[in-house]
Please model this.
Amino acid sequence: MKPGARKPPAKMTVAEARRLARALRGGDRRALARAITLIESTRADHRRAADRLLRSILPHTGDSIRLAISGVPGVGKSTFIEALGLHSIDRGHRVAVLAVDPSSPRAGGSILGDKTRMEVLSRNTAAFIRPSPTGGTVGGVARRTREAILACEAAGFDVVIVETVGVGQSEFAVADMVDMFVLLLAPGGGDDLQGIKKGIMELADVVIVNKADGDLSAAAQRTRADFTAAMGLMRAASPHWAPSVMACSALIGSGIGEAWETIEQFRDAMTGAGHLEARRANQARAWMWNEVNETLMERLHKDDRVRQVVKAMEVEVAAGKRSPTEAAQAILAAFLDG
Model:
């Protein structure tokens, strides 16, 4: 095991998986932490135990609002999530935060550790914060983040927030596992329009300009106006919701209440139109096929016979003796015939 990596759970029997599921449904935060560790493990026996666990808790999931919070590094995502989480807890909710952090190239664990950046929220008994390392590839963590969301819901958390590393390819994966995608911006006016891809903007259900306080207040309002104009040129993802642009300051708490009201309005509009149920159904189907693709790739790379063919094909492709298409067919034939 790499230094600093989480210790995997011991081999789990069916009875132990059932006990863990009961503790999880009882709201035990340590059971939730253990369940997510089990879910994230790549060991074959842990995967089987995780599958049993998920099967038992599935009927107890789905009763949360699932949010993704994204934005470039330094925009104040953690500060915003802490302020939003505390605000929703004050209104009787329980909040789980799944923070996808960059991985240490040496230890393999999370570099940033969001518990240290959300100190007040992490001490609240109605909150649960889980930093997860990317493991070098966002897709690998995103694959298990879906399952971690279900575990949080089974534990009674009715607000589940996924904090992403930043603005990039990962956002497309995260947007496919949540109900609402929140894009955070820093005051910067039109310059930010050049730095954020149109595709990311189209994912946003609401855009929030953070740090709208002090000397940055005027700049924040200009940024809000710029992005309001930009969003007006884009096609809304749903006919039942028009994405809006608002400003807030997570540091001093201004605008946080309005942000939470917008989230509730979104949930009510999507639920009332039946769009939320349809969106989750589509996400579940996409998740199934993603698992098929990931599992096939894992088994292909672990197949000894295929490895030998791969080595030969790589040499021939690099030397120009065989086309990549032909080589790919040879590798698949070795896998399927094996």
